[in-house]
Amino acid sequence: MKERARILVVGGGYVGMYTALRLQRKLKPELGRGEAEITVVTPDPYMTYQPFLPEAAAGSISPRHVVVPLRRVLPHCRVVVGEVTAVNHAKRTATLTTLATDEEGTGPEQLTYDEIVLAPGSVSRALPIPGLAEHAIGFKTVEEAIGLRNHVIEQLDIASSTRDPAIRDAALTFVFVGGGYAGVEALGELEDMARYTTRYYHNVKPEDMKWILVEASDRILPEVGPDLGRYTVSELRRRNIEVRLDTRLESCADRVAVLSDGARFPTRTVVWTAGVKPHPLLAATDLPRDERGRLKCTPELTIDGATHAWAAGDAAAVPDVTAAEPGANTAPNAQHAVRQAEVLAENIVRSLHGEPLRTYSHKYVGSVASLGLHKGVAHVYGRKLKGYPAWFMHRAYHLSRVPTFNRKARVLAEWTLAGLFKREIVSLGSLEHPRAEFELAAGGKPSDESSDDPKGSS
Ligand SMILES: Cc1cc2nc3c(=O)[nH]c(=O)nc-3n(C[C@H](O)[C@H](O)[C@H](O)COP(=O)(O)OP(=O)(O)OC[C@H]3O[C@@H](n4cnc5c(N)ncnc54)[C@H](O)[C@@H]3O)c2cc1C
């Protein structure tokens, strides 16, 4: 091993956190002797367990328990809250901005490294649809999930108090675009929560609400296979949710969702979950990318043609060595991200010790999806489950996967308490504007963010 290895991990999500966790364990002696140093750069000081976002939106899990504090689980790493904005791998430098660099006005910092792990994940793949950027919201972060929960409950309050039928209709219409598991689970959980919540309103009934899923292809939930995809469509329709297949959103300007089949829905809620694309940071590196913008990787998780550069997860095109057809890459999901991180960390250690690298090989075992409380679909190890058993499997699987014993215990406690007491139905949207009341009292102008915009406040 060389005298000192400075390892830079870009991203604190699945790949970033699991890579750093394994590296700090495997390199413990070297870290102790000052022969290795691990720096994790990430915009938030926590890792988000994204499969729990729909349950957080439904109020079944507190937002705090969906995230893992990186400083606590990575005590032997240097965690820097900031963003890498460019990488010059030829010079082994990364450009970094932090809250302090912004405040000091000194411009970005340069960070020098010996090994780099690029794991910034993906971002929502938005299209140039009129009104989308102004009115829609994504579903990738805990802030979006909780913002959406508050927004949905607030729409019930608006519908309950308005005398204008047009405002009421728009408030009670919820449009979700994209039938992958993020969109289907988010819609399934939120509709279930809203349906339950209406029992506490004297003048809003479940049948007054309109929930619409718009999907451009002819199927939803491809992750669970065609049979369970069809079952999910019929299950959602049974719940009065409109599932519009082979349909696209064409506009959501002026708060009207216009679909390619000619339908028009005045609405204050458009949730965009129509796929992801690799993080734009990757375009600001001198590393090779494939035609979809992902870093080209080898099965050992090195970046093709570069030395001392590694990648995995949503940002990487990793050859799927288990696939029958040649040229296939592993799918962008947590199942691969976690396992790739383990191999990646091990390979960095092996490379530092001059040992041969391991090949990443994992055959996708299937998926579980929740469609609301006690409802779900699962296709795992060839077995297909529906309804309560699938939902139970979904919970058991994710409880076993959520990082740290601390989080497992807290999530389990919340589920247990939720089983004993009634569901939480309160919107705490005002938490997003803690100064509003004081601003008003002090004679200042209240913040002008529109309260019916799921991206703004609510
Ligand atoms: C709602 C939802 C539900 C999902 N459910 C499932 C599921 O049930 N099963 C499943 O297998 N997969 C699921 N996924 C997909 C899974 O979460 C992703 O595939 C996985 O998170 C990818 O891991 P990653 O490390 O590549 O990216 P991420 O986990 O997204 O991590 C990327 C990290 O990089 C950070 N970052 C971004 N920009 C920068 C920058 N400039 N500098 C430094 N750091 C940066 C981000 O803040 C983040 O911490 C779901 C995703 C969503 C959105």
Automatic annotation (TrEMBL):
Disordered: annotated segments: 439-458
Stored Gene3D superfamilies: 3.50.50.100
Keyword Flavoprotein found: yes
EC number: 1.6.5.-
GO molecular function per UniProt: oxidoreductase activity
The UniProt record lists the keyword Metal-binding: no
Pfam families: Pyr_redox_2
Keywords annotated in UniProt: FAD, Flavoprotein, NAD, Oxidoreductase
Domain FAD/NAD(P)-binding: 6-341
PANTHER family listed in its UniProt record: NADH DEHYDROGENASE, NADH DEHYDROGENASE-LIKE PROTEIN RV1812C
Family note: Belongs to the NADH dehydrogenase family.
Protein name: NAD(P)/FAD-dependent oxidoreductase
UniProt organism field: Streptomyces vulcanius
